[in-house]
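User: Please predict structures.

Assistant: First:
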Amino acid sequence: MYLTREEEKILDGEYGEVKEKMFRILVTIGDIYDADRMIEISSTQISGVSYKSIGDFGLEFLEDLADKGAEVSVPSYLNPAGIDTKIWRELGFPEDFAEKQMRIINAFKKMGVYTTLTCTPYLIGNLPRFSEHIAWAESSAVSFANSVIGARTNRESGISALASAICGVTPNYGLHIKENRKPDILIEVDADLKDISDFGVLGYVLGKMIKNRIPYIRGVKSANVDQLKALGAAMAATGSIALYHIEGITPEADDFDIRGLERLKLDERDVREVRERFSREEIDAVMIGCPHASLNEIREISEIVKGKRLKKTLWIFTSRFTKELSYELGYGKIIEGSGGKIVSDTCMVVSPIESMGFRVIGVNSGKAANYLPTLCKCKVVLGSIKELIEMIT
């Protein structure tokens, strides 16, 4: 791999121990994947934030980096943590967990990372342009950036994204290269996709079927931002898919010749079978926002719960920015008046909900449906927002 003179100086330690170690990580990744050089990036999005995910070892590693003067060189945004940093006591998060979680957040803050604590950075200002190179780690954000925006990023790990944040570059391989972004399977969809949960189920099925391939999807007549983020998030969770193309919708769909691709067909029966596979037990709570809910989703929920009194827990996970805006617009007050909570900085998957008494969770997310049984030991009921809220009113 070609390195510039400045990059060679970094490896020689002329810019300090921390930058040398971080750059060495990127060089090793580049060597593994036969990258020809490093390329500059405009932003990073860093995962591995929740204490539940990284534990004491990760906490000590981050604090050591921060204490040694590590500092990011490009705008860098942080994935959700394991608690709502403002109302964790009110919500019942364990105190010892919260204390260590705040230490992790403070270590990132000391390095200059924006502690946005959201998996949807593109909804709060970190919006890369088409074909721009970035280094993002959160799987759903990677899918959205590549597929819906047309930016270019591989699916980074938390440590490689942090290394890129500090060094300002990433190895030039994989989805940074145009020819590697071409679809390799054609998916023909014949199903009535009405709401976010339908797109989440479609993504759930596709991820399991095609693993990490790049699909070209035909038959989706229309899709809004929330539906596209739900689709990509589910595919990334069940199949490690970092890029998809939808005919007539996503920006690179017309850039490639799809003649001769292997074909798969999905119909209404495939979608219905997935819904029926999940538990129909009585739910303890409804949790929405995996990925984090947009303002439009919060508005929709406020319209559904307006004038109602919820009998069980309703948590809506979103960014702090979106939460504050939802209260300014009155949506938050309506939801709170019904007995629901808008929770920021965290999400159901990376928070310790299994230690807080939750056992059966209602979700509208294919990603959450995949992760909650394994990461939180919770059973899942999968449905639309309206269906789920009806279960707790």
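Second:
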Amino acid sequence: MPAILRLHPGPRYSEASIHAGTIYLAGQVPTDTAQDIEGQTLEVLDMVERLLLEAGSDKSHILMAQLYLADMTDYAGMNKAWDQWVVAGSAPPRATVQAQLADPGWRIEVVVVAALP
């Protein structure tokens, strides 16, 4: 059985795990909570992209994305940022739900599973 590679492991969780050609990212959240939903979404998607690149992949290899919004009234603003970011012709399956996020300043959290090329 292939080994599991963990990126940025900490005492509570790792930012990513890689196993059998699949990359699993931890939920990515914004650091700048003063931004609106579009800004927070772009910040989080940039984090996702950097982790995928570090793992040896990219956003065109996303297998599934789960987006958690603190408030569904942010759906249109989140989609505006998402549509700018996603690779044309490679939009992955996606679920978007409203959830109570751990920090009240977070308007979005994104979880991604991707393939290694």
